[in-house]
Each structure stands twice: as C-alpha cells, then as structure tokens.
Specification:
single chain; 177 residues; alpha+beta; 50s Ribosomal Protein L5, Chain: A; five-stranded antiparallel sheet; 5 strands; 20% strand; elongated
C-alpha cells in the first residue's frame, strides 16, 4: 500500500469514527483507462502510435477493444478497432492516481476542479480528459491526432458519500461551490 493510501486511510478513520471496522473503509480497487482510437481503423500506423502513447502514459501494455456488432448509422463494422483499454491495480494504480491529481489535472486549461456529480450508482467516479498531451510522458513531436482519455476510478464503498470522502482524502480536486 502506498503512502497516499495510508494517509487517506487515517483520515477516513478519523472522520468516520474509531468504532468503524478498518476493513469496511472505502478503498480504490482499480483504475480503468479507455483511450479512443476509432478514427484510425484504416491506418495501422495511427493504431501503433496510440498504443505507444497509452503505454507511455500508464506504464502497462493496453488491450485493443474491437467492435462486437456492425452499426450502419455509425459506419462501424464488426471487428474494427475502437479503443485501447488498460486496468491498473495496486502500486501502479496509486502512482497513476498521484500523477493524475498532482500533475495532469492542474495542467488543464481553466481548471476549476472536477464535478462532484460524476459518481455512478455503485460509487465509481468517471471523467474524461479531452487531450492526451496533458500527460507529461506524451512526446508532443510524435502526436498525430488529439485523442480523449476516459478514466474510471473503481471504488469499493457502500455509498456515493463515502466514495467522495475517499477521493477527497486522496487529494482529488472537486469544484468548490
């Protein structure tokens, strides 16, 4: 467990009370990163550059997700590449989250914080960064196309409020009301 996780665990124990079972505290289970590359379905070179970028960003080899069905209105055929997907767990997850909160998000233009309303019913948090060049690992000279990065923080908790408490303890920048 990383230092950031231990500090968050201490803060949660203090705020939820000492009688709370430490094993029932909310915790970050995994981080899932989707990297859309659907426009590069005909160009293998763009797929390779997208794979290199997401590998540099996450430090882990991505999995290529392909279309399961053909959809004529989207001009999509079954088997065409849609996105790269990476699931981070344990220490790599905490390293990525710390880099995301402290380096990438403050670099966003006109950044005021992220919405506190992006939690789903299970307490997971989803958001999109519209430009991959905000990540320091991406070489700007080799970028051929601007792609969006969708990030899902999968949290093991019983409510949205507990998930928000965990993210606040980890240093997540929510918008101020």
């Amino acid at each position: 467990m990383s230092n950031i996780a231990l500090i968050a665990k201490k803060q949660l124990l203090e705020s939820l009370g000492p009688k709370r079972n430490p094993m029932s505290l909310p915790r970050l289970q995994k981080v899932v990163i989707n990297y859309r590359c659907s426009q590069s379905k005909d160009n293998q070179q763009q797929l390779d550059s997208a794979q290199k970028e997401i590998t540099d960003i996450t430090g882990q080899k991505p999995r290529l997700c392909r279309a399961k069905k053909s959809v004529a209105s989207f001009k999509l055929r079954a088997g065409e590449p849609l996105a790269y997907k990476v699931t981070l767990r344990r220490q790599k997850m905490y390293d990525f989250v710390e880099k995301l909160f402290n380096i990438v998000l403050p670099r966003l233009r006109d950044f005021q914080g992220l919405s506190a309303d992006s939690f789903d019913a299970q307490g997971n948090y989803n958001f999109v960064i519209k430009d991959q060049t905000y990540f320091p690992e991406v070489d700007l000279d080799n970028v051929t196309q601007i792609r969006s990065v969708q990030i899902t923080l999968n949290i093991n908790s019983s409510s949205k409020a507990e998930s928000k408490m965990l993210l606040s303890a980890l240093g997540f920048p929510f918008t101020k009301k």
